[in-house]
Amino acid sequence: MREALREAEKAIALGEVPVGCVVVKENRIIARAHNLTESLKDASAHAELLALREASSRLGDWRLTGCELYVTLEPCIMCAYALVLFRVDKVVFGAPDVKHGGVMSLYNLLDDERLNHRVRWVYEPCEDCGRLLREFFREKRW
Question: Which residues take part in binding Zn(2+) (predicted)?
């Protein structure tokens, strides 16, 4: 999660919502990303999607079997379903997203037994993840 936080700090420097993400396989980081929606003018440029695409490119396969994703904020519905499509084994996130969360806060997409792939998920509360987001939005509101 420390490495995901470093990515989130890169996002802040660009004026992006501070969400960072890393993809791990066999205890090695194979991809990393942070939000770039404003920089790329792309609503889908969430940290998770960018990291999943990078991991897929590095492995030469769209199936990320054996991979775990660590992200500072609970994935939204789009990113949660991307985890299913990419066949990620597990996602770990450090802060809930009560407005857009697709894993536990607003929706429980990854718990839907009708999906063809199940992604295990773990919410590991991380004060630094929440703090970065609170500070970012506090400054935006003033």
Answer: 46, 76, 79
83: number of CA atoms within 13 Å, CB side? 33
Structural domain of 127: 1-140
Q: Where are the alpha helices (DSSP H) in 42-126?
A: 47-59, 77-85
Q: Which of 7, 16, 48, 74 is catalytic?
A: 48
Tell me, what's the pLDDT at 142? Answer: 57
- What is the pLDDT at residue 139? 85
| Catalytic (active site) residue 68 | no
- Which residue's entry shows tokens 């993840």? 129
Q: Cβ of 125: how many Cβ atoms within 10 Å?
A: 10
- Full strand arrangement of the beta sheet holding 67-71: 28-34, 20-25, 67-71, 90-93, 120-123
Q: Using a pLDDT cut of 90, give the percent of the chain over it.
A: 96
The binding site for Zn(2+) comprises 46, 76, 79
| Residue 29's CATH number | 3.40.140.10
Give residue-wise pLDDT tens across range 87-103: 999 999 999 999 999 99
